[in-house]
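dumping these here so i dont lose them again. two proteins, back to back, each one seq then structure tokens. dont judge the mess
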Amino acid sequence: MFWALLPTEAMHLLYEFSFIENRGWKDYRLQLCLSSNSENIYSWLNHSYIHIEYLQINYDKLDELIEAIHNKLETIQGAYSLKGAKQELQVLWHQVCPDAPIPTMVKLIRSVNSTDLEINHYLVSLRQDEEVEVISLAAEIEDYFLKENREVSTLELKKEFQEKRGWSDNQYYGAIRKSTLFQMSKTSFVHPSTIAWNSGMYEEVHAVLSENLQNKNNEGIPHIILSEIIDEYLLPELPNGIEWTTELLISTSEEKNNFLFFDDACTFVGNQFDIEDLDDMIAFLMSQSFEYNMEKQKKVERLLWREGIIASGRAIPKNEVFFPESSIAYLPGSDEITLSQIGEERYGSKNPA
């Protein structure tokens, strides 16, 4: 394949000049091409890409890293930040793949079928024990949706499969996780066929998100608000009376790992603002909004509600943003949040004040 001929630097130049400037490709089209080769193409430093042939990967050390993460999870009995892992296990991390950014390591971990690890927003956790039947049970749930051909609530699903058919919690939740269903709301799902989902529709949705996000990036804004995209009727029309929701938009778009999603917002993975996770987004917005890069928690939360980063009325999820390598921190003996030393180094200079 042509990509295999290109080292990292050349791929970055190709990305920026050959295809976009010289050949007139849209940025989203090139990203889509890259994502379709996700087994071989990895995101790299400074919004560039690299072919797996040019990655220095030690798979024995990768197994050791996964085992170390697994042991850490069993010790803490909770989610573990991959930012913390990159720092705490930095020697082993470097041995696996020198200078690998977190998105690259996530793909490497997933590439070796670490089925007992769940990775979400760079937080890794242990999956609940699953029974062997969940694969076939997932098909049963999908068949139910195909017959209904509509949005189905979790209340209805639990009554049908747990109360009526006697499934255990592990069977039910394992089947949902293994299924191809899309999330419609916090409490409902829909089958892809009900919305006539196909590759062409994916490309159209991807293009809408990419173009609007790129326009915001050009203005110095790292994210778009998804509900605004929906309200402006920019997305393709759906059949069977189904309307776009934020949950559905995220559910149909997150598989390719091109976007980093929040409650009602998203940014590019490997974006130009050096935002890798929720704590980074909070730190960036604080650096843009508060003169001294610190403010009371309630005021920070109101900023995040307005920008779609966390749902209106919700508190900052402490387990996702306050950890040793976080970009933000609590001031001792105070209800104020500030940029940590890491946050100051990454975003302090971006303060417009």
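---- next one ----
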Amino acid sequence: MSEAVLSVRDLRVHFTLRGERWFGPPHVLRAVDGVSFDLPRGETLGVVGESGCGKSTVARAVLGLVPVTAGAVRFAGEDLARLPPARLREQRRHLQIIFQDPLASLDPRMTVGQIITEPVRAFLPRMAKEERRARLLDMMRHVGLLPEHINRYPHEFSGGQAQRIGIARALILRPDVVICDEPVSALDVSIKAQIVNLLADLQAEFGVSLLFIAHDLASVRHVSHRILVLYLGKVMELAPWDEIYRAPRHPYTQALIQAIPPADPRRARTRPARPLSGEPPSPITPPSGCVFRTRCAHAVERCAQEVPLLRQVGASLVACHRAEEIATLQ
């Protein structure tokens, strides 16, 4: 593995909520509770999990958009959570984001040219107008937009085209890291594949590192080098993408794999359904021990008493007391 451009260690993001009673004690919502990972230069880390597992909070904590309760987010050797505002702003030009809803993330009053060059005007205000326009046209060409689109407005584009505008805006500064916050979840299936392929091509050309967030494993399969599985703010498994699909070690990862619909309709009709039962517990009152135990068919008494540590099992890092036993049952 190459040197990490982004390193997250024991990241915790907790929110204090007012209690049900006026003078009652406050509640603590543990949105992210001890997440660690490295993102090497030029690679993609897929982050998956059900809604409410903490994926987007991790992304926002990395960018400094939500306060970090504990832990470290290191970029270029500096802990972003502890930088003074002026230095944090300087570093933000190297970390950009692509949002989930392409149309909602674009200002309807701005033209495509203004939207894409907004980061340049903010971070490189002294750049000459001719150079800025040349960079704009080059970036539009890379994402599949035409020069005549410059003076059009977001409402004139489809969802896929609008996401290309968002990608161009995120990449025009040539950042080191781009966080893709469910960038294809609002798109049609055929358009999803185009956007994923576009991101892969741009990564190969510019050497950018991607943190690709999705709620299902199918969306990250063809773009990720490694995959991190989150549940209730904790890491359940972290492994190379092929290991995740070939031999998932954690019961939650196995359930997510089972939820991927087969490409062959005949196989879809014959494959037995094994849906994950129940709803995720509240992050305000998580279960004792393993947070996944209330929905796990393999849970034993130890799972309720002891928090499983992330440990090496084969090629994977797994937070499960019975990972070796469960692997033999696949």
